[in-house]
Amino acid sequence: MPQRTLLFVLFDGVQSLDVTGPLEVFAGAEKLTPGAYRIHTASLDGGPVRTSSGLNLVPDEALTSAPDPHTLLVPGGEGTRAPDPRLIEWLHTHGPRARRLVSVCTGAILLAAAGLLDGRRVTTHWAYCDTLARDHPAVTVEPEPIYICDGDVATSAGVTSGIDLALALVEEDLDREVALAVARHLVVFLRRPGNQAQFSAQLAAQTAQRAPLREVQRWITEHPGGDLTVESLAARARLSPRHFARAFREETGVTPGRYVDRVRLEHARRLLEDTVGGVEEVARASGYGTPEAMRRAFLRALGTPPVEYRRRFHPAPAR
C-alpha cells in the first residue's frame, strides 16, 4: 500500500476546526493502518500561526522546506479575506505538483486565487459562494452540497463538512471499514453524502413574516406524512390556493412544493439513520406513500437509494 503524504497549509486567521477536524480523521486512519499517511503541517515561514479563535498552532516546518505532497489541504478562515500574496504565489507554484487538492470552507478562495480551480465544480461556505463565483467566473460554484469531488480536486463547505470530506477520502484511499472505524472513534456517522444540502429545509428557507404562513411551515415540519397539497395548506392559512402559493414563495424564497419535498426528504433520512423501521414504513411516515416514490426522491436529491443510504449508518455486521 503506497504511503500518501498530506500537507496542511497553516496561516494566521485560519479556522482551527478546518485544520484539526480533517487532521484527526487522517491521523486516526494512520493509527488503524500504519504507513497509510504521513502528515505534515507548514506555514509560510515555519512559525506559529494564530487561529481565528485565538488558538496558536505550531507547524512542523516552513512551506519552502515541505515535501511535495500527495494531498495538499488548504483550510479556510478569516485569514482568507486578505491573504498574504506569498501564500497565493506558493500555492500557484506548488499546488499543481500535488496529486490531490483539497480545500475546507473558504480555503477554496485561496485555491481559486492561485488559479487552481478554473474549470472545476467546487463548493465553499454558503456565505461566500456568491463572492467566489463573482470573483472567479471560470470556476463553477455550487452552493448546495457539503462537499464536491471533481477529479483530483475536492472542496467542502463550512467547517464540520471538512470531516465529512476527509472520511470520504479515507474511504476512497483505504476502505469503508477504516473510514467507519475512524467515524466511530470520533463519534460521528460514517459520512454524510456529498450532495446533501448545507442547510436543513427550515434553515435554507426564510421564515415567513405572516403568522399564518409561519404556522403552515411548522405544520409541514411536524406532519410530513399528512395532506400537504397546496389546497390543504392554503385552507390552513385561510387563503386561496393561488394567493397562498404566491405569498409562500415571496416570504420563504421557495415554493410550497419544494419546501414539502425538502422536509419529507429530511424526515425520511432521519428515520433511516436513527431507526430500524422498514423502508415501506419510513416511506409512509414521511409522506411518500410508496417505497418507489421515496426511492426516486432519494436518487434525485442524494444520488443513492434509501437502502444504500441506510447501510451507511447501519452496516451489516461482520460475519
From TrEMBL:
Sequence ranges assigned to domain HTH araC/xylS-type in this UniProt record: 214-312
UniProt-listed Gene3D superfamilies: 3.40.50.880, Homeodomain-like
Signal peptide boundaries: none
InterPro entries linked: Class_I_gatase-like, DJ-1/PfpI, Homeodomain-like_sf, HTH_AraC, INH-QAR
Keywords: Transcription, Transcription regulation
One MF term in the entry's GO annotations: sequence-specific DNA binding
A Pfam cross-reference name: HTH_18
CDD domains for this protein: GATase1_AraC_1
Protein's name in the database: Helix-turn-helix domain-containing protein
Species: Streptomyces broussonetiae
